Amino acid sequence: MIRHQQFIEALSKIPGEAPEWNAVASGYLVLRAFDDWTVLGPVGIVNDCTTVGILEKIHALPDEHRAEREVLVQIMSALCNSADTSLRSVSAPILAYGGVLENNGQWILASAVYTNIAEMLEARTPLDREECSVASFAYRREAFSLRNAQDYAGAEIAYRRAIVLGEKAKDDQAHLQAKLGLAITARVRGNLPAAEEALNALLSECSTYDAKTIETVRPGLLHARGALRHDRGQYTDALLDFFDAYQSSQDPDSKEMILANIGASAEEAGFPELARNALNIVVLTSRRHMARQLAIVNLIENAIVDDNEVAFTRLRNMWQPEYCDAHLNAYARLYVARGLERFSTREHAIEAFRDAASYAEKAEIHKAQFEALHDLERLERDISEDTHKMSRASHPLPEVLQPLTQALSEIYILAATHHEQSADFEKIPS
Fold first, then answer.
1. Cβ-contact 109, 135 below 8 angstroms
2. What's the Cα-to-Cα distance from 167 to each of 10, 251, 368, rounded to whole Å?
3. Which residues have a Cβ under 8 Å from the Cβ of 234 and sit 6 or more positions away?
4. Which of 47, 143, 393, 405 is most deeply packed, by most CB within 10 A?
5. Gap between the terminal Cα atoms of the chain
6. DSSP per residue, 70-125
7. Are the CB atoms for 107 and 148 separated by under 8 Å?
8. pLDDT tens, position by position, 23-34
C-alpha cells in the first residue's frame, strides 16, 4: 500500500475548496514529514525547505479546525526540536492527532495514524517495555477506530496485536484493555453469547490482580457488561453496572459515554427523570461528538414514546451520522423510521425501515436489522398495532441510585440555565 493512502483517498473525495480538504492535506503533509524525520532526524526536517510551507498551511487552517491546527503544530515542533530520533519523543502528539480524528468521526484516517506509529515502533526492534506499551495503546486505538468504521476483522487483528505487545511490556492494564476491546467488538456485532463469555473470562482474570492494577480496567469492564445487559433487556441490572462504572471511572470522556448509557437504560427501566436529566446533561455539556450523538439518538427514541413530534423533528435534525459508530447509526436509523411511522406517512416509514434494515445488514448489526425487518413486515402487511407508541411505565427508583438522580437533577438545572445564556449549543427540545 502507498504510504498514507487513506489520506490520499480521503482527499480525492473532498472538494478542493472545502476547509476540510486543507485540514486533511495538512495532516498528510505532517505524516510525510514524520516519515522523513525517521530517516533524516530533526536536522533534516529543520533544513527542509518544505517545512516552512507545511507550517504556513497548518497555521492557515480556520478555527473550525482549531483542534487539528494545534496538534499538527505540536507534531511539527516535536519533529524539529526533539533531541534524538527515538519515537518516544514524537509519539504523544501523533497519538493525540489520532484522537482528534476520532472525535471528528474520521475513523479511517484515525486508524491510519495509529497504524503508522505502531508499525514504526515495532520496526525498531528490540522494543523496550515503554515502547511496547505505547505500541499496544496505538493498536488498541486503531482497533477502536476500525470497529467504528465497520472493519470488525481488522479491529480483532489489531486488538490481538495489542494483547501480545501488552504482555511483552508486562503491562497488565494494556493487555486487559485489549481483551475488553475484543469482547466489546463481539457485542457490537450482535454476538452476545461470545461477548458474555469473553467478559466473564475477563472478570475472572481481573480477580487475580490487585485493585491498583485493574482500577483503569474495571470501569470499562462494568460499562461493557452494562451494555450487554441492556442489549439483553436487563435494564435495571444494566443501569446498576453503568452506575458503578460512572462512580469508579476517572476518565471524563468515558464518564460522558457512561452517563448517556445511564440515560438509555434508565428510560427503559422506568426511571424517566433520571433518564432525561442524564441524556440532556450530555447533550448540553459534552464536547465529545460521539457522546453527544449517543444522547441525541436516545432522546429521539424518547420523543417517540412521549408522542412529541416537535422534539422528534428537532432531535432528528441534530443527529449527525458522521460522528457515530455503525452500531449507533443502525439504531438511529431504526428510531427515525419509527418516528416517521408515528408522525409521517406509512410510505415514508416503509422507506425508512428498508434503509435501516439495509444499513444494519451491511454493518453486521444483526439485532437492529432484525427489529427493522420485523417493523417493516408489520407495516407492509398493514398491521396498525404499534408497541412503540406505548408509554413506558414508571417504577420506584432503587435507593442506591437516588443520590445520583438528585445530583443529576441539580446539574441539569445549572446546565440548562447556562445553555439559555449561551449560543454555543443548539436549543434542546423539552
1. no
2. 35, 24, 36
3. none
4. 143
5. 50
6. HHHHHHHHHHHH-SS--THHHHHHHHHHHHHHHHTT-HHHHHHHHHHHHHHHHHSP
7. yes
8. 999 999 999 999
Predicted TM-score of the model (pTM)? 0.88
- What local confidence, expressed as pLDDT, does residue 430 receive? 46
CA quadruple 192, 211, 254, 282: dihedral sign = positive
Q: How many CB atoms lie within 10 A of CB 370?
A: 14
Q: Is the CB of residue 213 less than 8 Å from the CB of residue 170?
A: no
Q: Is the peptide bond before 126 cis (omega within 30 degrees of 0)?
A: yes
Residue 322 CA to residue 414 CA, distance in Å, equals 29
Q: Is 157 exposed, middle or buried (0-12, 13-18, 19+ CB in 10 A)?
A: middle
Distances from the Cα of 266 to the Cα of 10, 163, 263, 306, angstroms: 39, 34, 5, 15
Q: What angle do CA 374, 377, 380 make, to 5 degrees?
A: 150
Answer yes or no: are the C-beta atoms of 412 and 280 closer than 8 Å: yes
Task: Report DSSP state, residue 386.
Answer: -
How would DSSP label each residue in 8-68?
HHHHHTS-TTSHHHHHHHHHHHHHHHHHHHHHHHHHHHHT-THHHHHHHHHHTS-GGGHHH
Mean pLDDT for the chain overall:
89
Measured between alpha carbons, how far is 301 from 399 in angstroms, rounded to an integer?
Answer: 27
